[in-house]
Amino acid sequence: MAPAHLRSLCLLALYLTTGYGQESRFSGPLKPMTFSIFEGQEHNQIIFQFKAQPPAVTFKLTGETDGIFQIEPDGLLYHTKALDRETRAFHKLEVSALDAKGATVEGPVPITIEVKDINDNQPTFLESKYEGSVRQNSRPGKPFMYVNATDLDDPATPNGQLTYQIVMQLPKVNEVMYFQINNKTGAISLTREGSKELDPIKNPSYNLVVSVKDMGDQAGNSFSDSVPVVITVKENIWKTPEPVQIVENSTDPHPVKITQVRWNEPGAQYSLVEKEKLPRFPFSIDQEGDIYVTQPLDREEKDAYVFYAVAKDEFGKPLAIPLEIFVKVKDINDNPPTCPPTATVFEVQENEGIVSDIGTLIAHDMDEANTVNSVLQYKIVDQIPPYPKEGLFLVQTYTGVFQLAKQSLKKQDSPQYNLTVEVSDNDFKTLCHVQINVIDINDEIPIFKKSDYGNLTLPENTAIGSTILTIQATDADEPFTGSSKILYRITQGDDEGCLRVDTDPQTNAGYVIIKKPLDFETTPIHNIVFQAENPEPLVRGVQYNASSFATFTLFVINVNEAPQFSQHIFQAKVSEDVAKGTQVGNVTAKDPEGLDVSYSLRGDRRSWLKIDPVTGRIFSAAPLDRETESLYRVQVVATEVGGSSLSSTAEFHLMLMDVNDNPPRLAKDYTGLSLCHPLKQPGSLIFEATDDDQLSFRCPQFTFSLGSESLQKDWEVSKINGTYARLSTKHTNFEERVYDIPIRINDGGRPPLERTVSLPVTFCTCTEGSCFRPAGHHPGMPTVGMAVGILLTTFLVIGIILAAAFIQIKKNKGTDNVESAQTSEARPLRT
Ligand SMILES: *[C@@H]1O[C@H](CO)[C@@H](O)[C@H](O)[C@H]1NC(C)=O
Ligand SMILES: *[C@@H]1O[C@H](CO)[C@@H](O)[C@H](O)[C@H]1NC(C)=O
Ligand SMILES: *[C@@H]1O[C@H](CO)[C@@H](O)[C@H](O)[C@H]1NC(C)=O
Ligand SMILES: *[C@@H]1O[C@H](CO)[C@@H](O)[C@H](O)[C@H]1NC(C)=O
Ligand SMILES: *[C@@H]1O[C@H](CO)[C@@H](O)[C@H](O)[C@H]1NC(C)=O
Ligand SMILES: *[C@@H]1O[C@H](CO)[C@@H](O)[C@H](O)[C@H]1NC(C)=O
Ligand SMILES: *[C@@H]1O[C@H](CO)[C@@H](O)[C@H](O)[C@H]1NC(C)=O
Ligand SMILES: *[C@@H]1O[C@H](CO)[C@@H](O)[C@H](O)[C@H]1NC(C)=O
Questions:
Q1: Where are the domains positioned within the chain?
Q2: Ligand 2: does its nearest atom lie under 6 Å from the Cβ of 217?
């Protein structure tokens, strides 16, 4: 082959190779090198040009050339045929440099040719057909067989990476896949649906087509292969056994085999797991899968058991879902009937009829309900006491309902019966006790011992509270109950309610007692009828009859009695100004015996009244005055005329109504009013008026004026309010003396009353604004007490001098204190 031709291919080959030394990509000195070349390339490809170093002139190639690799004397390394990775993946070559004599001067140097894979091989299943089998209900995802394909290409590249897939399943119902394959390992297992639905009875075998392709996950240029797989479905013998029935209280030697479970293959390890936590768990399993009951069971303790059987592999991993084992305990009649835990007591009223139910005895049997083992029968075997006769009661055989058999009961016969009742099931008998209490009812009426209690005569003034008669009735019902207690009622002859009857709770005796005074004049004869009753109503069909009634006659005899006023207090109201002799009221009294009555007054302290002894009319006998006594109280006396002159009294109250009969007056003593002399400015004084008439119904509105016209040039009176007024001077020119100023006060009443009062005003020489005060003695404001002391001392020293000037007030010396106080109140104005 011509070197020129080789060179023309050189560039292409060098581009397609990798892994050269760093000095140059295409040529260089001889040294260890590695080249990577894809397999399947065209032949005559240049790999590298070694440069000879003198004295070397040529090269030699040895090693695994397989006749494919050659080297030219000028150092050009090339291969003459396509490489095949699957034949040899690495070619270990050696290159030596030779001198002209053919002696090695360099090397041999290792040169490695790595053949890179291309996808030039298709995957192939190792077998042309696969067969396998699976148990129904096998765990989903657990492999039961493998398919296996190979590919000669490099498994480190996608070329040799295989992916498995099920492409077809026959038969296929509703598009549901029962099988799945691991796309990397070729492991075939059941899907969840397959685990549930596979059933050899329905379909004993399936055909799959499984494919394998290379190039891993990459799409595109891949080779593939496919293979049929036949899968046989085998029956699962790991199945829930039928429910088990075990007869309770078994006497067989235990343990007793009751059922079994089997795993599909031998070698499984079996165990039992409780579903509910029990105080004892009387079951076991052996390594054959046989299940035993270990001791006798008691249905009355627990009537059913549920637990699980588990199969595990040798590593303790569950092989399949646990199986539920159901055990029912079958009843035998091993329990006698039992009486109720508390005593059975029925109560029966005396008048209970013979058909009605009087009670039910409920006995129990622990054995299974609604079986002959627990159906009970009742029978009365004894009755205590046996009177009035045997067989008073009957019981219904299957229900335990009791009834009266022959007649109603009477408490008098026996208040209580004790029955013995035989209760039986199929095999056992038990005696139970029933107590029957007879309840009294109010079926007896009270009956009087006497129907007529005769005549009794009493004076009308017989004391209240007196017991005048004892009556007696009896009642045959149970003592000390509302059925036998007796209440006595007076149904006739006592319309006024003068009598009452109290019952003795022990004896039921009735005591007839006077409650209100008897009165001969109203009712001289009482024809009394008593009725005896029970507080409880009588039962239906029983009624009070004549035996519950009794009669009695009470004669009241007359006693002379005092006249009786129609009222205890008589009241009247008149104006205080009624004329003498006016009738102000009247009183009336009647004598029970009808005698005439004479009236008189008692306690007429002011002799204001007189009374007509015959008519009881009362008249005024003098002027009345409300201001003296607003409510005048006297007693009126009514006396029988003739007879025993018995008398009685009542009150007469006369209320006096006010009239305006009092003129106004000064409210207090105003003798100390004073003004300083000489007067520097006009002064004034305040005074108050009052009125003795009843002020409560109006505020007094007095008017004030000067009593004399001639004073008007010096004085002036002005009203402050309804009761106060001011007296003022009109100028300052007054003498040092006392002026008596007449003031007219009108009360504005109806009719108006008026009075002229005299107000004495003293003009005096003032010291520090007050009369009679020595100068400079008391620098501060003197108290009232000190003022009084000063005043008295002053009187003693200069009394005689003053006596002449104040002769008019000398007679009022006893009220000096008042005068002093008033001075400070009605104080003269200071200049
Ligand atoms: C598949 O076959 C190859 C070659 O016989 C073997 O090496 C490999 O372990 C097998 N794989 C499986 C999963 O059986
Ligand atoms: C192979 O299976 C895995 C998980 O089962 C999945 O993630 C992957 O995509 C599958 N590869 C192919 C090529 O189907
Ligand atoms: C078992 O039966 C016998 C009679 O057969 C009885 O005496 C015993 O009480 C029963 N045991 C139980 C737990 O019921
Ligand atoms: C019924 O039985 C009770 C309780 O044993 C007893 O106290 C009572 O006296 C008995 N009555 C009769 C009438 O025997
Ligand atoms: C009671 O009085 C009546 C009338 O006065 C008289 O007829 C009767 O005989 C008297 N009865 C007795 C028991 O005294
Ligand atoms: C009233 O009834 C009682 C029985 O309840 C009877 O013994 C009595 O004779 C009766 N009396 C009359 C007057 O009918
Ligand atoms: C006696 O006073 C009553 C009111 O107490 C009166 O109704 C009657 O008219 C007065 N009789 C005379 C005669 O005044
Ligand atoms: C009337 O006037 C006097 C003096 O000013 C005063 O004390 C009194 O309270 C007054 N009375 C009324 C009812 O206003």
A1: 4-116, 124-234, 244-330, 344-439, 447-557, 564-657, 665-772
A2: yes
Specify the pLDDT at position 695. 56
For residues 567 and 585, give the distance between their C-alpha atoms in angstroms, rounded to a whole number.
13
Which ligand has its closest atom nearest to the C-alpha of 297?
Answer: 3
Residues with CB under 6 A from ligand 4: 384-385, 416, 418, 435
CATH superfamily ID and name for 344-439: Cadherins (2.60.40.60)
> Does 831 score more than 70 pLDDT?
no
The pair of structure tokens assigned to 620 is: 């005024």
Q: How far is CA 346 from the centre of its chain?
A: 40
Nearest bound ligand to CA 182?
2
* Helix and strand element counts for the chain (H, E): 5, 57
Query: Looking at per-residue confidence, does 637 or 74 come out higher?
Result: 637
Task: For residue range 384-414, list pLDDT tens digits in order.
Answer: 999 889 999 999 999 999 999 988 898 888 9
Cα 420 to ligand 4 centroid, rounded to whole Å: 12
Token pair, residue 458, equals 């009493």
Residue nearest (by alpha carbon) to ligand 7 atom 3: 586
Output the six-digit token pair for 111. Answer: 């040169």
* Test site for ligand 8: of 720, 726, 727, most ligand atoms within 8 A of the Cβ: 720
586 pocket-lining for ligand 7 (C-beta < 6 Å) = yes
Q: Is 572 in the pocket of ligand 7 (CB under 6 A)?
A: no
Give the 3-state secondary structure of residue 54. Answer: coil
Residue nearest to atom 1 of ligand 7 (CA): 586
Q: Is the pTM of this model over 0.70?
A: no
User: Pocket of ligand 4, candidates 345, 416, 438: which has the most ligand atoms within 8 Å of its Cβ, to mutate?
Assistant: 416
Q: To the nearest whole percent, how much of the chain has pLDDT over 90?
A: 48
Mean predicted confidence (pLDDT) in 617-621: 95
Q: Does domain 447-557 have CATH number 2.70.180.10?
A: no
The predicted model gives 551-572 an average pLDDT of 92
Q: Indicate which ligand has the atom closest to the C-alpha of 382.
A: 4
Which residue(s) pair with 665 in the sheet? 690
Residues with CB under 6 A from ligand 8: 720-721, 724
Please determine whether the domains at 4-116 and 564-657 fall in the same fold group of CATH: yes
**pLDDT over threshold 60, residue 814:** no
Tell me the per-residue pLDDT of 505-546, one tens digit each, with 9 for 90 and over: 999 999 999 999 999 988 999 999 999 999 989 988 899 999
pLDDT of 22: 41
Which CATH number describes the domain made up of 665-772? 2.60.40.60
Amino acid 49 reads Q
| Burial class of 59 by CB neighbour count within 10 A (0 to 12, 13 to 18, 19+) | buried
- What CATH number labels 564-657? 2.60.40.60
Could you say which architecture CATH assigns to the domain 124-234?
Answer: Sandwich (2.60)
Residue with tokens 């290792």: 110
pLDDT confidence of residue 19: 39
Pocket lined around ligand 1, Cβ cut-off 6 Å: 126, 146, 148, 150, 185
What is the CATH number that goes with domain 4-116?
2.60.40.60
Which of 525, 553, 554, 555 should be mutated for ligand 5, with most atoms under 8 A from CB? 553
Nearest CA to ligand 5 atom 7: 455
The fold of the 244-330 domain, in CATH, is Immunoglobulin-like (2.60.40)
* Inter-residue contact 459 to 442 (CB < 8 Å): no
Q: How far apart are CA 790 and CA 782, in angstroms?
A: 10
